[in-house]
Design a protein that fits this description.
eight-stranded parallel β-sheet; alpha/beta; 259 residues; binds zinc ion
Length: 259
């Protein structure tokens, strides 16, 4: 049987309130060995920690302030989140920059992201990075700390070859790939094999969002990653087992606290 890790799943969300046990059971049945849960703000730091406490050795927490949640109270939120980072927390995330919907808090987003990048250096924890319409700004901040950062994931990568190469220059970082790779219009099946070696890739759902074909539009869940694995195996011309083994090895390298 295949074994893989879902590195980004909002399993604490209310979308899963009614059937979280069943969702986890289905994931285990198809070979999902672990699930990583990112927080997005103070409130979800608690729900993420609660779910992970309920499924020890299976669900792992990542704490951070998501760029879309950076508002006027970001400094207070960051102080509370930092206090919640215990040795059980495996990464800082999800954090980053997002100018897709609004640039209202552009300056605050930059400051909040940089502060959390400094946490990653200080605590030597990997970063789970969310970035939309802001890659150059994000890269500029990361470059300042590149020598001291232990690594991380550029989550939900959907870019082109040039963008992939720019991100892979951070040699302890990998790209997170999920359901988008199965969409008909996606260029990822060409872009990834062209410039992303298999030791620079990890799997994710971003559930409940981004369900892969043929579940597109439905609530996503960790068991659906098998469709992403199939697509990536075709694209790279390797077995599904190879995709799983490589991505799992990458996860174990970047997230030492799960070992
Ligand atoms: Zn997310």
């Amino acid at each position: 049987m295949i074994h893989y890790i879902d590195t980004h799943c909002h399993l604490d969300g209310e979308e899963f309130a009614q059937d979280r046990d069943e969702v986890i059971q289905r994931a285990q049945e198809v070979g999902c060995a672990k699930i990583f849960l990112p927080a997005i703000d103070v409130k979800t730091c608690q729900t993420v920690l609660d779910v992970c406490t309920s499924y020890p050795g299976y669900c792992y927490p990542m704490l951070g302030l998501h760029p879309e949640e950076v508002k006027g109270d970001w400094r207070e939120q960051l102080a509370t989140i930092k206090d919640a980072i215990t040795p059980k927390v495996i990464a800082i995330g999800e954090v980053g920059l997002d100018y897709y919907w609004s640039r209202e808090f552009e300056q605050e987003q930059l400051e909040a992201f940089e502060e959390q990048v400094r946490w990653a250096v200080e605590l030597q924890l990997p970063l789970m990075i969310h970035c939309r319409k802001a890659q150059n700004e994000m890269v500029a901040i990361l470059k300042k700390y590149a020598n001291d950062l232990p690594g991380g994931v550029f989550h939900c990568f959907t870019g082109n070859e040039q963008e992939a190469r720019q991100l892979l220059e951070f040699d302890r970082f990998v790209l997170g790939v999920g359901g988008v790779s199965t969409f008909k219009k996606s260029h990822l099946p060409e872009v990834l094999p062209a410039c992303v070696p298999l030791d620079r890739l990890v799997l994710e759902t971003d559930a409940p969002y981004m369900a892969p074909v043929p579940m597109r539009g439905q609530r996503n869940e960790s068991s659906y990653i098998r469709h992403v694995i199939t697509r990536l195996a075709e694209a790279y011309g390797v077995s599904e087992d190879t995709i799983c083994q490589q991505t799992t090895a990458n996860v174990e390298r970047i997230f030492p606290r799960i070992r």
